[in-house]
């Protein structure tokens, strides 16, 4: 079954897509990545999305319009990717997270927009969507869902191994003799991106090649204040997002430093926020006794982050997720293709240790495609997964 996975992450800079051809035999699943791409949002659409995100106020009218416009953008990307491989049997879309409701350490709700009916209409295949909320209803955080994929890819390694994804938010899956643990560490690119966009430092919306951070130095007083955020001390499972780590969050910290008579130059601010990611991720890797770390996400392309992790973790083998068969820039799109396959086959695609859910759950809602909805024969469970990518050289 060829399944197309789609998402836009917490960096909300564009739409990632992957098509995976899955073959199953008695619970053994093999996936071949046939196609991967990342398509930037139209600048006007991205600007509207950014303007509507917390902590900014918005309206139901704007949410409705964005739901349609993002759904149509996803549909165009999906149709192009499906045509590139000669068609797909199903689609799984994550959509765009606009709010993740966490109160007193518990996830109570989550909202992703990007109307899936537009995708079903354009592609003609059934579409699995709204995949996080079922985990939340089962007591989970709805994140990090990638822990399901990570556990399958890491389960045969000796000792304690982990996978970390450096998107807008950094999340980590730890697999070892004691089982599975996964959670959101904190901001990866979210705070740097917020400053880059707000200050107009790079039209791409991120610190390309860490050029801005390289021009600055770490401000130790600011870094200490950022590291004192109570979120980092919370036990796993836990989840967070731009409801907490956003532009005003940074500005409030900078204002407190200014009240003490300290001005922080923009390059120093970006360098400090970059170091925050390195420090928080490295601290959790050390605390968990991890010896193998597979890294994915946009933060992989920031040399200060990647080299910073390697320097801070001399006893850890730090590799790119490509070595596990999951290209670093499309790993989460591959995850949603996997979730789509699992949902269509009646397989729970969430591990309780990964999200805090009480029990495994089959995820998502299905929108029929052009014809009658015909489900494949159910599969009891996925015992193992092997990935290979035709896109890796």
What would you note in describing this structure?
The chain is α/β, with parallel strands linked by helices. The chain is 36% helix and 25% strand. The protein has helices spanning 43-52, 60-84, 116-123, 133-137, 147-154, 190-199, 211-214, 220-227, 247-259, 266-287, 303-312, 331-344, 352-355; strands spanning 2-8, 14-25, 28-40, 90-103, 106-113, 127-129, 161-166, 169-176, 179-187, 292-296, 317-320, 365-367, 384-389. It is globular and about 65 Å long.
Brief summary:
The chain is built from 13 helices and 13 strands. The longest helix has 25 residues.
Q: Helix count?
A: 13
Mean pLDDT: 95
Low-confidence stretches: none
Number of strands: 13
Question: What level of helicity do the residues show?
Answer: 25-40%
Main sheet, how many strands, which sense, barrel? 8 strands, mixed
Classify the secondary structure makeup into a structural class. Answer: alpha/beta
Shape descriptor reads: globular
Strand content: 15-25%
The helix/strand order is: EEEHHEEHEHHEEEHHHHHEHEHHEE
Cα gyration radius (Å): 20 Å
Q: How far is the first residue's CA from the last residue's CA?
A: 24 Å
